[in-house]
Design a protein that fits this description.
This protein has 9 helices and 6 strands. The longest helix is centred in the middle third of the chain and has 23 residues. Helix content is about 50%, strand content about 20%. It folds into 2 domains: about 70 residues, Orthogonal Bundle (Arc Repressor Mutant, subunit A); about 140 residues, Muramoyl-pentapeptide Carboxypeptidase, domain 2 (2-Layer Sandwich), CATH 3.30.1380. The strands form 2 sheets. The protein has a 4-stranded antiparallel β-sheet. The protein has a two-stranded antiparallel sheet with strand order 1-2. This is Helix-turn-helix transcriptional regulator.
Length: about 230
């Protein structure tokens, strides 16, 4: 009788230390290019690409083509997949989803909206204290970004020139969030994102529009803040 060697299935290896750092950097700073990651990790670009290739094969990252900052030449950027997001513990979001689901089943969609409105009001009162001493819109946006980062949103702000169809231009502020601490909830309850937009409009007192949303699979939540008063 001929004995055949038994093939053992190796367990899936956890990402090595550098790959874990890659995931953490993308989690903290949003989608990154291979060049960005090489600079942050202090490794060569080919080395960064090897790590990215491994993480792509493991389903932890996805690659897409974007223009950096919405401008310039398109580049390949790497972002976390749902599996990659799940590598970071977030048990509170799962609890929130369950609570909101039961609330809707028991009392209807209106009850969910009331809960989110109440949360909005409490959060707005907390943030308004930090913004009330700001003398200009730019200072308010910058302070809001700092407070949102403290809440886990990894927010930044900058000013840019907006061109209109008639050739005129105006200055707008851009608020960018590269992380959503409530992503599982936001994916199932769009009302959460809608309440966030309303909150920013009320806090800043001007028109605010959203260009992109993490919950829709985009790399960041990006808000454009004009100087026009919010109606």
């Amino acid at each position: 009788m001929t004995l055949r060697p038994v093939t053992m299935t190796a367990p899936v290896a956890l990402p090595e230390r550098t790959k874990t750092r890659v995931l953490d950097l993308i989690k903290r700073h949003g989608p990154q290019t291979a060049q960005d990651l090489a600079a942050r990790l202090d490794v060569s670009i080919p080395a960064a690409r090897r790590h990215l290739g491994d993480l792509l094969e493991q389903g932890l990252l996805e690659a897409r083509i974007e223009k950096p900052g919405g401008r310039g030449r398109p580049q390949h950027v790497f972002a976390l997949t749902e599996r990659g997001e799940a590598a970071f513990p977030n048990t509170s979001s799962g609890l929130c989803v369950d609570v909101l689901r039961h609330l809707r089943e028991l009392f209807g969609q209106g009850a969910v909206l009331q809960v989110l409105d109440a949360r909005n009001q409490a959060l707005g009162e907390q943030l308004s204290v930090e913004l009330e001493e700001a003398a200009t819109l730019g200072e308010r946006v910058e302070r809001l970004a700092v407070q949102l980062t403290a809440l886990g949103f990894e927010a930044t702000s900058h000013r840019e020139t907006s061109l209109h169809e008639d050739g005129a231009s105006s200055e707008v502020w851009v608020l960018t969030q590269t992380h959503c601490p409530h992503l599982p909830v936001a994916r199932q309850y769009q009302e959460l994102c809608a309440s966030e937009l309303t909150l920013y409009r009320d806090l800043l007192g001007v028109a605010v529009t959203r260009d992109s949303r993490i919950a829709c699979g985009q790399g960041c939540c990006r808000y454009r803040i004009a100087a026009a008063p919010h109606p």
